[in-house]
Specification:
CATH topology of the domain at 96-316: TIM Barrel
Number of helices: 8
Order of helices and strands: HEHEHEHHEHEHEHE
Number of strands: 7
CATH superfamily of the domain at 96-316: Glycoside hydrolase/deacetylase
Shape: elongated
Distance between the termini: 116 Å
Largest sheet: 5 strands, parallel
């Protein structure tokens, strides 16, 4: 094999007087040697390549995460849509069953359902500055409670005192809504269903809720639900059904002692005579009483009413959303 020619510098001493060649480690002035520059460039290129690879990995990872997040978001939207559909279906089923159930519950209670001797005393047309506090004092003295169904327009009804609403609840009694103001012509039943809620019920509900600071879900139709048919056959069932669908429970009664215009003795007798058949069947009763400017006889009668009902074995409770409605009219 032929070896390459290699120039080996001569090791002979230079002749005297001759200048020894000057060697320099720098070939191009004072810069970096060409070989060093080339190496640095190569390293830089390699570093850039590595950076590019890393960035590629990072971008791929981010894209993967973005895809996963998008997939999760799509899945979440799908699940939400399904949940909403299921909820709508359940609400529909609830609505379909709510009316028949409430109707059956209310009608049974009105006629005596045998569920126990519970008395629901109720006061309409207040709260009055004249008699509400007297009623509350009597209830407290007798260890009883009641439910008020109130009007809210204290400009139109000058005896109203809405500040008593909180006093009623503090005593342990309950507050529901009757309407904005009493209309002897019952005009609010003659227009559309929405008109009744927009002008009569909803503003009253909002006024009471503002006063009490919590939701109110119980109500009574002025005159009772059976009165609606006298002013609109179309609304006779439509308005009560709409009240239930809007999340309210309405209450009629199964004892009306005709308190207005009667003496205290007559009111007491009317209550106790009407209560006797319900007591005999171990059934609850709901009594309607007035709380207006002309309620003196009722205020006088109340202590004896409570005593007489207690003697029949009745305890006293407040109405709530879950209580039976004592419906006077079939709405099925």
């Amino acid at each position: 094999m032929r070896l390459p020619n290699i120039n080996i510098p001569s090791l002979k001493k230079a002749p005297r007087g001759s200048k020894r060649p000057q060697h320099s480690s720098r070939r191009h002035g004072h810069g970096i040697p060409a070989a060093g520059v080339s190496g640095i460039v190569s390293i830089a290129i390699m570093a850039l390549a590595v950076v590019a690879i890393v960035l590629g990995v990072v971008v791929a990872n981010l894209n993967s995460r973005a895809t996963a997040a998008e997939s999760s978001a799509t899945e979440a939207v799908t699940k939400l849509a399904q949940a909403q559909a299921n909820n709508s279906a359940l609400e529909q089923k609830k609505s379909e069953k709510l009316i028949p159930w409430r109707n059956a519950q209310g009608r049974l209670a009105a006629n005596g359902d045998g569920s126990g001797k519970v008395c629901y005393l109720t006061f309409d047309d207040g709260p009055s500055s004249t008699y509400t506090q007297q009623y509350l004092d009597t209830l407290t003295e007798k260890g009883a409670v009641a439910t008020w169904f109130v009007f809210t327009d204290d400009d139109a009804i000058d005896y109203l005192d809405l500040s008593l609403l909180s006093t009623i609840e503090q005593q342990g009694s309950a507050v529901g809504v009757e309407g904005v103001t009493f209309d002897n012509e019952y005009g609010f039943y003659k227009a559309s269903v929405d008109n009744f809620f927009d002008t009569e019920l909803t503003p009253a509900i909002e006024a009471v809720e503002d006063e009490l600071g919590h939701d109110v879900t119980i109500m009574r139709f002025p005159g009772g639900s059976s009165v609606i048919a006298n002013y609109s056959k179309d609304n006779a069932k439509a308005i009560p059904i709409e009240a239930l669908n809007r999340g309210y429970q309405y209450f009629d009664w199964n004892i009306n002692p005709k308190a207005s215009g009667n003496t205290a003795d007559t009111i007491v007798n009317n209550v106790l005579q009407s209560a006797q058949p319900f007591a005999d069947s171990n059934s609850p009763i709901c009594i309607v009483l007035p709380d207006s400017r002309s309620s003196a006889a009722t205020a006088e009668a109340l202590p004896r009413i409570i005593d007489g009902l207690s003697d029949l074995g009745y305890s006293f409770s407040t109405l709530s959303y879950d209580s039976p409605g004592f419906y006077q009219m079939d709405i099925s």
